[in-house]
Amino acid sequence: MPSHIQRGKFITFEGLDGCGKSTQLKKLAASLSAEAMPVVVTREPGGTPTGEKIRQLLLDTSTSSLAPMAELALMFAARTQHIAEVIEPALAGGQVVLCDRFTDSTEAYQGGGRKLGSEIVLALHRKLCGSLQPDLTILMDSDVAASVDRARRRNRAQAGKDDGATGNENRFEQESRAFFGRVRNTYLAIAAREPQRVVVVDARGTPGETHKRIVDILRRKLRLAKSA
Q1: Chain centroid, CA 148 distance in Å
Q2: How far apart, in Å, are the Cα atoms of 14 and each of 157, 182, 224?
Q3: N or C: which end of the chain has fewer CB within 10 A?
Q4: 163-200 tens-digit pLDDT
C-alpha cells in the first residue's frame, strides 16, 4: 500500500434478521457519500460473484438438509473470497467498507444457533481471515419475535415478486424461536467480550432515531461523519 494512502475503515452491521440493519447501512452509506467519503457497500454471505452463488445455496429453503459443519465451511469459503476480492483492496485504497454481516454473524448463527460453539468459528477466522477485524461493529439489538416476523413478511413479499429463478432467502427465518434466542444471546456475549469494537444499538426506535445514534457512534469512535 503506498505510504501516502491512509488505510480505510471497516465497519460491519450485525443483528437478527429483520432488525433493520440493511436499511441503516444504506442510510449511513448515503450520509458518508454526501460528505465525499469513498464508500464501498457489501454483504455476507456474498459480495463477490462466487460469494453470491454460495449465498444462494446457503439461504435457499431447498438446502434445508445442509449439515451445520458444511454450512460453517461455506460461510468461510464465501468470506475468504470476499476479503481477497473486495474488502482488503478497498481498505488498502483508503475506502470506508460498510459490510452487512461478517464473522460475528457466523459465531452467532452457526456457533450459537447451530450449537457449534464459538471456538471453532474463531479458529477458522484466525486461519482463513488472518488478523482482519472490523474497526467498528454496530450490533442492532431487537426483540426476537418482532425481528423474525418482520423478516418472514419481507421474504414472503419478495417471493411474490420473484420469478422463481433465484429461489428464496428464508431458510434461516424458518428456524425456531429458541434458535434465534441463542443467536441473540451469542451476539450480546460477543459485545461483552469486545466492547472496544462492538457497540450495541437499540433497534426498536424509528429508522431516523437509529440512524442518528449510529452517526453519533461513528463520530465518537472513528471520527467519521458529521451530526445527523
Answers
A1: 16
A2: 23, 15, 19
A3: N
A4: 444 456 567 767 888 999 999 999 999 999 999 999 99
Q: Which residues contact 227 (CB under 8 A, 6 or more apart)?
A: 215, 216, 219
The answer to whether residue 54 is domain-embedded is: yes
Domain for residue 160, yes or no?
Answer: yes
Contact 190, 134 (CB under 8 A): no
Residue 2 inside a domain? The answer is no
Domain that holds residue 55: 9-222
CA–CA distance, 18 with 149 (Å, rounded to integer): 8
User: In what side-by-side order are the strands of the sheet with 39-43?
Assistant: 39-43, 96-100, 9-15, 136-141, 198-202
pTM of the model: 0.89
Distances from the Cα of 87 to the Cαs of 44, 149, 187, 216, in angstroms?
A: 11, 32, 23, 24
Eight-state DSSP code of residue 7: P
Structurally, the chain folds into a number of domains equal to 1
